[in-house]
Design goal:
homodimer, alpha/beta, Alpha/beta knot, 2 domains, 10 helices, globular
Chain lengths: ~230, ~230
């Protein structure tokens, strides 16, 4: 059995055109030796320039997706080919992960890889095997492709469960969605595909901590018999 | 009960003096808008210049410590004040973490913070509370300070256990050590303080995945009654 994991509405995007000409943005890119077109939107760098950006509290945190990608890629569940992994972004792009993708250790290489992907739409290894593929689409499009119409969603106002209980639901359902943004709520479009809404804790917990723990509990069900 | 976690021999250091004058290093720093004295040693950037560096396979991976620090800082065990956390580095520096330290989201800010710490030896919050403190020392010095003479060590040739079994040992013993380097072995000095050597899997598993899962199982024992 293969589980589908979608990191949804991830705060991962290239610098919006409206910001590329902002002198503050140009300046902060310059300090890092880069041009604005070679930057991902990043709240740590572009905070002041983001004030008129729609949904700005949900955007500009590419580190969240990066850390979840690293968690997934180092998990035995993914390495053994038992998890389909997708990153859906705020701007409705979908990044599909091939098998055995090993993300770069250094953030600046990850940023370069993402910019390359947004430009070329596909990243292959030296043998021509597709590692990453980019297309337009929404969370429901990913689900449709995997033959599902809904998924278990993790959201602050969901039913309180432990990671073990959540993993049992996910293993049973076959697909789950975690938000890849720092604050705010899922769009109505995304939350409409939740068959069930679960939550771990009233206190905020980092997305990658949730992903790491949930994948680990899933492995206990799917890879090992207790 | 408070558990002590030491990330040992972490591949985290400023650029060695011998490399600061290497034209390849100067060049790669320049591309990122930095001077060599404002860089951490990083295999992704300084690989070719590291060829004559002692123990080079163990060094130049500050991302490992960064990710483990993020895992610790977002764990309920640390947030509730039930874990002492220390990073011991390859060059025998010890970074002691205060309570409720929140590491930066962006890697470049983490790098800046570490460089600041290596220079000033202490980082305080605006109210004067000590967040990070740097001193010279070895793993055994950290243990002595917490009143212990040995710790549970995680090493590839240790006794094979599950994370649950490992957490039971650690909870019982009160202190554990994970290696913060990408390849090679613990120094004799570090491994001499292991009361018990444990291992999770024959296949290599990322340090931060180990840390995340082990801390989670520790929480089950120390924070919740099942």
């Amino acid at each position: 059995m293969k589980v589908t994991f979608i990191l949804a509405e991830a705060a991962l995007e290239t610098l919006p055109a409206s910001l590329q000409k902002d002198p503050r943005v140009i300046n902060s890119c310059k300090k890092l030796g880069k041009k604005p077109e070679n930057c991902l939107l990043d709240k740590s760098l572009h905070y002041w320039a983001m004030d008129r950006l729609k949904d700005r509290e949900k955007r500009g945190r590419p580190d969240i997706a990066y850390r979840v990608i690293q968690d997934v890629a180092s998990s035995p569940l993914y390495k053994k080919g038992m998890m389909n992994f997708f990153v859906h972004t705020y701007n409705d792009y979908i990044i599909q992960f091939g098998e055995n993708v090993r993300p770069p250790h250094a953030y600046f290489r990850f940023e370069g890889l993402m910019l390359d992907l947004f430009e070329k739409k596909v990243i292959k290894d030296p043998e021509g095997k597709v590692l990453l593929q980019l297309k337009r689409g929404k969370v429901k499009d990913v689900l449709n492709e995997t033959g599902k119409s809904s998924a278990v969603g993790f959201d602050v106002d969901g039913e309180k469960v432990t990671y073990e209980q959540a993993a049992a639901h996910v293993a049973n359902y076959g697909a789950f969605v975690i938000g890849g943004f720092p604050a705010g709520n899922f769009s109505k479009e995304t939350s409409s595909i939740f068959s069930k809404k679960l939550s771990f804790s009233q206190e905020t917990i980092e997305t990658d901590t949730v992903a790491c723990r949930l994948i680990y509990e899933l492995e206990k069900i799917l890879l090992f018999t207790k």
